[in-house]
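Input structure tokens:
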């Protein structure tokens, strides 16, 4: 069986995204690189990026697993809620 990349796996899912409102409130000014690295490494959808010393986040491909909320301990992720009804991810492969 061929190993799929994160992008290929996510391509199997269906996303109904609220492009205007994030369901996750992230402090992009947070400076502790060790804490940021935890989120970058743990997010299965690669929503968190740290490139050339700049921390970025995009909720558009979020799998709504809550890993970032648990790891952050309110340091980087200031708020997390499920998206409003009919918005979010629909998993297509178990």
């Amino acid at each position: 069986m061929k190993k799929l990349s994160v992008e290929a796996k996510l391509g199997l899912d269906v996303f109904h995204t609220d492009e205007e409102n994030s369901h996750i409130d992230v402090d992009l000014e947070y400076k502790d690189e060790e804490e940021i690295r935890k989120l970058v490494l743990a997010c299965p959808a690669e929503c968190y990026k740290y490139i050339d010393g700049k921390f970025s986040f995009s909720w558009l491909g979020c799998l709504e697993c809550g890993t970032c909320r648990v790891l952050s301990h309110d340091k980087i992720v200031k708020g997390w809620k499920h998206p409003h009804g009919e918005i979010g991810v629909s998993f297509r492969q178990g």
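The chain has a mean pLDDT of 83. Residues 33-42 form the longest helix (10 residues).
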